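Morning!

This is the sequence you dropped in the shared folder:
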Amino acid sequence: MTEHTDRQHPSQPTPTNTPETERPGRSWWRPRRRDDRATAEQATTAETESREAERTARAETETLRAAEQAARAEAESLRAAEQTARAEAESLQAAEQTARAEAESLRGELAALRHRLDHALAEIKSNQTELTLLERESARAAEEVAELRGRLDAQAESASRLRALQEAADRPPPVAAVLVRMADQLADLRASVEAGTLDAATLLRWLDRRLPELHAEVGIETVDDEGPLDLTRHEVLETRPGGDAPRILSTVRPGYRWRDHVLRPQQVIAETGDAEDPAT
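The structure's back. Tokens below.
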């Protein structure tokens, strides 16, 4: 007789009352999904912070560039002022030398007049009959002295006016510095538009059209040379080895000059001219 038992055959599945949410597959999948979501949120936060840091770095770089440009403009202004002061000193020295020469000439003329007066006095003593003629000659001499003094005063006044005109003509007009700053600002705006950080197409078109007109009105010329390097007209910002002689590779910013005065040298990248001989 077979004994009845509540045991189940091993091949039959064991019934269970475990909820579906507590099954091994489900309990393992759901936390991992939450971990993936947290990782994605952390990556998004890190990317946002990186973009903010990049924007801050760009703004600081632009501020540093503006400060450097202002310092260069100040240095150029000081150089122009020094050149103007030297020119004024040389003009004053020339005027002083001219005045000295004129004074020496007047001293010679006065000495000659004194000699004539002395001779007239001697003749008066020797011959009273010639007194009237000597008095007239003395009067004429006095008139000549007065005329010479008047001529000297007129020449001094003319020299002073001429010196003032020359000084005014040798100095750049006040608008020159303003125009150079506007040109630098235009270059910065163009760079920002090209970098995609600023949309100023209309403003750039207006400035590109207006600036050359303003430069022409005040006699400012653009220096945009190619070929050999001339340190009196060019400022080297970067050098690269190569070439047979120092020469301009590219222009970073054009220069500006007024007559014979360089308001701001052309800023360039240049070859040093120290290329090695291929034979060696």
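Headline: Residues 220-280 form a domain with the Nucleotide Exchange Factor Grpe; Chain A, domain 2 fold (CATH 2.30.22.10).

More detail when I'm at my desk.
O.
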